[in-house]
Design goal:
alpha/beta, 6 strands, elongated
């Protein structure tokens, strides 16, 4: 009886369509992704062994650099708009709606000017605002602590509630009075709990925390 040979078929799979889809997805994510802008000032934070990640939702951040310049950052676009609008009305800054929109965007990196300089900052092109060497929000003493007013206005637009994540990021070489005046702005508005942003470092071996973390890793395995 003659043997019947089954013809062999090629196992080759045309990947052209898959490559097209992959490049389309890559292009979509590149266009849709919003990158975080550079911060208005660079700070060298104290080191710690904390492993917590920095929250980004409903986060109000106060930053002060080595020279004592203070900046505020807030991530909620709608609340930022309301905050800037209230400051504009209460302090008679004279901002227009397009200028408020520019400051709203600039606040992603940080705003650090006195109230009487907000109009000047907002009058610049959006691309030029990031290049401005901002002098910082005044916190020199209890009589001239505009950070206290920023926080008070923020609480007002939030209906008296503080943001979920209030954070403080200070340079390791900042003068002590600046730190005290920033804390005074917090406490005067009833904010006693906040997260301190630090530079993470390895836990020293032989410590209780080191043993706790290493034992936790072993348990996960």
């Amino acid at each position: 009886m003659p043997k019947v040979k089954i013809p062999r078929k090629s196992t080759h799979v045309d990947m052209t369509a898959f490559c097209d889809v992959a490049f389309l997805l890559l292009a979509f994510f590149m266009l849709a992704t919003q990158f975080k802008p550079d911060e208005a000032t660079k700070v060298e934070t104290p080191k710690s062994v904390s492993s917590d990640t920095i929250p980004t939702k409903d986060a109000f951040l106060v930053t002060f650099d080595k020279g004592g310049r203070v900046f505020v950052t807030y991530d909620d676009a709608e609340k930022k708009k309301a905050l800037l609008g209230k400051i504009n009305a209460d302090k008679a800054v004279g901002l227009t709606d397009p200028e408020i929109a520019k400051l709203n965007k600039a606040m992603e990196a940080g705003i650090g000017v006195p109230f009487n300089m907000l109009k000047s900052l907002a009058s610049k092109d959006a691309a030029d605002i990031a290049k401005v060497n901002q002098p910082g929000i005044p916190v020199t003493d209890t009589l001239n602590n505009e950070l206290k007013l920023w926080i008070a206005e923020l609480l007002a637009v939030n209906g008296g509630s503080k943001p979920k994540n209030v954070m403080l990021k200070g340079d390791n070489g900042t003068n002590y009075p600046t730190f005290i005046n920033v804390l005074d702005a917090f406490t005067k508005n009833g904010i006693y709990n906040f997260k301190l942003i630090t530079m993470p470092e390895n836990v020293p071996s032989g410590t209780y925390l080191y043993d706790e973390r290493t034992s936790g890793k072993k348990d996960k395995k």
